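User: Some background: our group keeps a shared notebook of sequences we're curious about, and every so often someone picks one and asks for a predicted structure to add to the entry. Today it's my turn. The entry only has the sequence so far, pasted here. Could you supply the structure so I can complete it?
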Amino acid sequence: MPRFTIHVPGLESQPYRIELDRPLITLGRGADNDVVIPSNSVSTHHANLKRTASGYELHDAGSTNGIMVDDVRHMMLSLDKDCTVYLGDVSMHFVLTEEELATLEKAKPTTAPPPHRVRSAAAPRNTSSTSMTDHVVATTIILLLAALAFFAGLAIRHQKETGASLIQEIMTSPSRKAPGH
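Assistant: Of course. Here's the predicted structure to add to the notebook entry:
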């Protein structure tokens, strides 16, 4: 039986086994999927693992973060005996035994290869720098919005108490006038 392991950052890896004759397995965050992946980077209906005459294919189901291999997004990937793909920031390691490969080889049609084949385990993608950059950007935006909200509140309070615009007072304050005026 083909196997794949889903690893969600911060959680234990979850192994799965597939019957060779199973035609379709749905993967996503939604509870109605065959494999539920508890990660916000995974769409509700993220991907479909399909059994074809030549093996297995992983199809993007219109997800937001896509299916990635070596930081390249793919709509469809043919999966070989030992490969790792990413669904958002979640890794999926797919494994076929030699016996399963032989069974699939017997059923394989003589056609051109699919557009992209994942042939070996991809090196684990370093998402820590991306996550850290995203965190810094998000924190900066939150701080800027907080400062803007504080200033807006200060300006409103000043106008209620004095009847004058805080921005005009700042613009015409003595420290902003040229020396000698």
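Suggested note for the entry: The first strand starts at residue 3 and ends at 7. Residues 128-162 form the longest helix (35 residues).
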